[in-house]
Amino acid sequence: MGSLLSACGINVKKKKVEEERHLRANDREFNLSFKYANNAIKTSKYNVFTFLPLNLFEQFQRLANAYFVFLLILQLIPQISSLSWFTTVVPLLLVLSITLAKDLSDDITRHKNDNHVNNRKVEVLINGELKSEKWMNVQVGDIVKLENNEFVTADLLLLSSSEPLNLIYIETAELDGLVSKPVNVNMNLSICEVRCEPPNNRLDKFTGTLTMRGETFALDNERILLRGCTLRNTEWCFGLVVFGGPDTKLMQNSGKSVFKRTSIDHLMNVLVMFIFGFLAFMCTILSIGNAIWEYQEGNSFITFLPRADGANASLSAFLTFWSYVIILNTVVPISLYVSVEILRLGNSYFIDWDRKMYHVKSDTPAQARTTTLNEELGQIKYIFSDKTGTLTQNIMTFNRCSINGKSYGKSSKKKIDFSWNSLADSKFCFHDHKLVEAVKSGSPEVRAFFRLLALCHTVMAEEKTEELFYQAQSPDEGALVTAARNFGFVFRSRTPETISLVEMGVPTTYELLAVLDFNNVRKRMSVIVRSPEGKLTLFCKGADTIIYERLHPSSSKLMEVTTEHLNEYAGEGLRTLALAYKDLDEDEFEKWKERHHEASTSLEDREAKLDTIYEEIEKDLLLLGASAVEDKLQDGVPQTIEQLAKADIKIWVLTGDKQETAENIGYSCNMLREEMKEIFIVAANTAEEKSRLLGKKSQVVEDEKVDGEYGLVINGHSLVREILELLRTACMCQAVICCRVTPLQKAQVVELVKKHKKAVTLAIGDGANDVSMIKTAHIGVGISGQEGMQAVLSSDFSFAQFRYLQRLLLVHGRWSYLRMCKFLRYFFYKNFTFTFVHFWYGFFCGFSAQTVYDEWFITLYNLVYTALPVIGLSIFDQDVNDRWSFQYPQLYAPGQLNQYFSKMAFARILLHSCYSSLVLFFIPWAAMCDTVRDDGKDIADYQSFALLAQTCLLIAVSVQMGLDTYYWTAVNQFFLWGSLSVYFAVTFTMYSNGMYLIFTSSFPFIGECPSIPTTSAHPAVSGEWHGLSDIGTVTKWRGSLIQNAIYQSCGT
């Protein structure tokens, strides 16, 4: 049994928690004993065995579907059924089949994507030979070979590469949305043993040890190459597989696939539960009426309808209850769900076909990847956005700088001609000619400024077709190095020990002695180099507040002037850095180098020890100046955010960038503004061992009104305590920016708002680090940009630019919500009206469960006569056009407040239907009660009344739909008048003499009971009474007799 469940994809045994990973290189037998996951991935939901049961289980979570299966069972019982089984089976099978086909198509696509990834080939070292293997067959402990521009197969410990001193270069766009980063590896290993941390989602940390020939070495994140990266600028490299498949950090950050359902779906489940109760209430009233009628009047009909043995009023009432459950089932019509699927699919196509959301430059159209969430787009209250690649283009430009107290960059509109520099980047633009003159004149401060920019970075250079290209870990580094290149200090190449420049046309090589890395606490980076003349210099760049604390007192006056310039740059929304340097003494440096080596090889508290060592040498710096770069926003981002804010949508930016970067981008895109009353900064420097964002109790945080607008900037370390208070503060702010957050924290912040605010959320991003956030939100949107396709593949909707979000929400989302609500209101109206007429009729047919309409009308009412008009209404209707939707974004508010469809709106529909049904039943009844033909004979009979009642009903609901339609199209007209024409055509055909002559034996003449054989003894009553055991048939025919008797008495 366990193997069968496993084959079906069901886990029957709880997996033991892994505390430490232990593996040996090239020893599959040893590694397989730990039963580590292989490298295959699975994002699909079903397999061959689980598709049908799991999909049907998901569909039957809709209570109405389960309800109609129950109805079908009831209809198969002849004692209580007064309707044929096909009236329920056909619509039910249609609904289930459409949903099955759609879900099957979606999952087949996921399987194809999985197979494409799992069947990629990679070279694996097996028995001393390189053999080609599929990715899914790679095991933990295998040594694999990667070549330039290949995707990384799994999480690898880098062993060796083709580059000098094993320096390699990787692109990490699939992981963190950034362009690239260099990795320095100094190992040449083929036989080793590794102990490391268990699988986790921390992208920036790795701890472990490597043992070889009795020696133990410390491993950190700099030695790890993660799945999702791409190898760049490196001919080949070898790596040891540490984590595979679902254990890789990429998959650990992907989050779980969830079955997303809209708030309207949840509300409909609640309403269906109410409808069940209301249906039971109506059936109970009618069954009690049947019992009373049988007790008081039933004996009068025994002559014509003798009771079966054991039948009495109680049994008749019990059977009548279930008969009315079948008769009144249209309060929850099965065609509702067919129509909803068609409506959602139609609105999804409108998104796909929208040319105004098509990005010409990248040839990328908008895509609705999920067809079940359209109306939720019209109810968004919170948007959670990534920064890099989502709000920005990942393109930065060097705009301003301050050098030795002089500000450059805003003197002339004419661009500088860099033709004097053969290595200049032709795309670089600068407008201040004074800076070029200062460089050419040999100003030592200006030259030292650009020399620092050319040396203090982690950029990699690559030459293609005699052109120089830079690939930087962050775009601002690339912009600064490019600026130095154009002003005559060209970075050409680097090794782990040297950096080669071309200074004003002269090739120069600096010896790289130490790199003092940037981190969130230090907020600065330094390099120590030795010039060709043997001079030792420390170059440092970082946040101005950090650099100022470490300046020599002699720089105090220059600091004041530079601060004024920095304030000016910040007011323009530019990203700023302060630059400083320090000349070092040889003896002092040697002593520091020894202490640095001890700290860097320590196995305990390595980071803290290194920070202390860095602090010792990064002091008494001399200020050079400051740089200012512009982070290029995508087109239309500030305008989009402004429009969404007018629609009362709150935007939170969740980014892994440092605080200063996040604040600057907040100002650039108008999220943070100078006129805000106050901007709160919540910044902690240390993180808890485990971040617990979500409390055990689901406490709802209510909205609070505040005077003025506020902003909030908070870092990831602060998201570990006082969460509800923090959330309450954040929700009162107009803009919130969370910086230095991990991919998992992004998802947890989204879940926090979902849980405690009970609001509809949307997450938008473009990198694999956004996948978990996208899956957690009610709506996930992927940007198909330069940062890979992981976000798009996990999203519900995708497009190429952030600016398209306002059209997706304010136009398509609002229209979809309006159409869905109008569709539901009308659908419940027409079906409640249809059902209430049956209810009133029960009081005039002896509560015998006789239908007031014929079976063909009951079958075709929802599937043919009223289906297409309401679909036309719900696909094409719009209250205002897209231009007015943009001009008045406040029109979006009703969706956020659930004003168009709610429990109160449903109650109003119920009352409206009750009133309409009373008119539609009693006016035809009163009109026909005393009606005679021109020869004086009565024409009032059951069939005439049924025809008149159903015709009045259809015309009335069609007129109501016409009154509810805002936007008439040719399709609406065709559907409405065409459906009425079909009704009259079917009615005239079914009631014609020709049909009776062709199908005499099976012609369903209303008012007769076709299942009771006629006899010569009782030609008028058409039945052999003593042989009858079908109580449902008897009560049905009895209702006809009673109805005709009532009309006859009215006529007399």
UniProtKB/TrEMBL annotation:
Reactions mediated catalytically: ATP + H2O + phospholipidSide 1 = ADP + phosphate + phospholipidSide 2
Record-annotated active site: 386 (4-aspartylphosphate intermediate)
Molecular function GO terms recorded: ATP binding; ATP hydrolysis activity; ATPase-coupled intramembrane lipid transporter activity; magnesium ion binding
EC class: translocase
Subcellular localization: Membrane
Pfam family, any one: PhoLip_ATPase_N
InterPro entries: ATPase_P-typ_cyto_dom_N (IPR023299), ATPase_P-typ_P_site (IPR018303), ATPase_P-typ_TM_dom_sf (IPR023298), ATPase_P-typ_transduc_dom_A_sf (IPR008250), HAD-like_sf (IPR036412), HAD_sf (IPR023214), P-type_ATPase_IV (IPR006539), P-type_ATPase_N (IPR032631)
Keyword Protein biosynthesis: no
Record keyword Nucleotide-binding present: yes
Cellular component terms (Gene Ontology): plasma membrane; trans-Golgi network
Assigned EC number: 7.6.2.1
Domain P-type ATPase C-terminal: 792-996
Transmembrane domains' residue ranges: 83-101, 270-293, 313-338, 823-844, 856-876, 909-927, 947-967, 974-999
UniProt binding sites for ATP: 386-388, 477, 518, 541, 575, 655-657, 740, 746, 769-770
Membrane protein topology class: Multi-pass membrane protein
Cofactor requirement: Mg(2+)
Similarity remark: Belongs to the cation transport ATPase (P-type) (TC 3.A.3) family. Type IV subfamily.
Protein name in UniProt: Phospholipid-transporting ATPase
The species this protein was found in: Cyprinus carpio
Origin organism lineage: Eukaryota, Metazoa, Chordata, Craniata, Vertebrata
